[in-house]
Design goal:
Layout: E1 2-11, E2 15-21, H1 26-42, E3 47-52, E4 56-61, H2 68-81, E5 90-99, H3 107-114, H4 118-126, E6 130-135, E7 142-145, E8 160-163, E9 167-171, E10 174-177, E11 182-184, E12 187-191, E13 212-217, H5 220-231, E14 238-242
Parallel strand pairs: 5-13
Antiparallel strand pairs: 1-2, 2-4, 3-4, 5-12, 5-14, 6-7, 6-13, 7-10, 8-11, 9-10, 9-12
Helix pairs in contact: 1-2, 3-4
Length: 251
């Protein structure tokens, strides 16, 4: 349910969580991203950082510059305007992905659990468009929805302690890309040579909340070639901006 009015939950003395819904949905997430966008455009005094999640926006602020009460008054007014239509054009990001083998080391096991041939699991996964709800857990890691229902799969019973950076994986109804080496409980189907997190870049995180991601299947030879170009700073993913057709809803 989308709340008729936002709920404000204090998070210590430097932040407030603006709760806009009690559901995980594209509509709720679009409102969260619209609120963040309006805060950035209006340059609300005292706000130092914002962090979107599925259905809420965490707003950090300087209490020496703005009081909690004054901040919530400003945020409440902006929340009334926070609708999907206020958002700028979304980005579509195409990422190459090499499925199976030593890069997608759990493709066969996931396919067996789902009762699918590995090639069919790869085809279904690569044929979907994935919406980035938010980026978190580790720097640059996107939480994405859009997996076809046929490949929804429970997460691993025993999560692994190390997952290579770039691993493309599924768990539950979600898809993610491990941005750095880290523990993980999603099934790894493949790997992208794209660098999702680069602390030296002007924008350290490749993906943003609100992006649409599409995977392009590649062979190992192309994976290795792109990896070399990425390391040398010669490669960038294909990114285009698109607007929703008139009248189309996010949901």
């Amino acid at each position: 349910m989308i709340y008729p009015e936002p709920r404000f939950l204090p998070c210590g003395d430097l932040a407030v969580s603006v709760e806009l819904a009690d559901e995980i949905s594209r509509e709720a997430n679009a409102r969260v991203l619209a609120l963040e966008y309006l805060i950035q455009q209006r340059r609300v005094p005292g706000i130092t950082e914002t962090l979107p999640t599925y259905r809420a926006l965490l707003v950090y602020y300087d209490p020496a510059a703005v009081s909690f009460d004054a901040l919530t008054v400003a945020l409440r007014a902006l929340a009334e305007e926070a609708r999907p239509e206020v958002l700028p054009p979304a980005r579509q990001v195409e990422l190459p992905c090499c499925y199976g083998g030593d890069l997608g080391f759990e493709l066969d096991a996931a396919a067996s659990k789902l009762g699918l041939p590995p090639d069919e699991l790869s085809r279904l996964h690569a044929g979907a468009d994935y919406h980035v709800y938010f980026v978190g857990f580790t720097p640059g890691l996107p939480y994405m929805t859009g997996s076809p229902e046929r490949i929804h799969i429970p997460r691993l019973v025993n999560p692994r302690t190390k997952t290579p950076a770039g691993s493309v994986a599924i768990g539950g109804v979600q898809c993610c890309i491990y941005s750095v080496e880290s523990p993980g409980g999603f099934w790894v189907l493949g790997r992208t040579p794209a660098r999702l997190y680069d602390p030296a870049a002007s924008e350290p995180s490749l993906l943003r909340a609100g992006d649409t991601v599409r995977f392009r299947p590649i062979e190992r030879t192309e994976f290795d070639a792109i990896s070399t170009d990425v390391a040398a700073g010669r490669w960038r993913p294909r990114i285009v901006e698109v607007s929703l057709p008139s009248g189309e809803r996010v949901g």
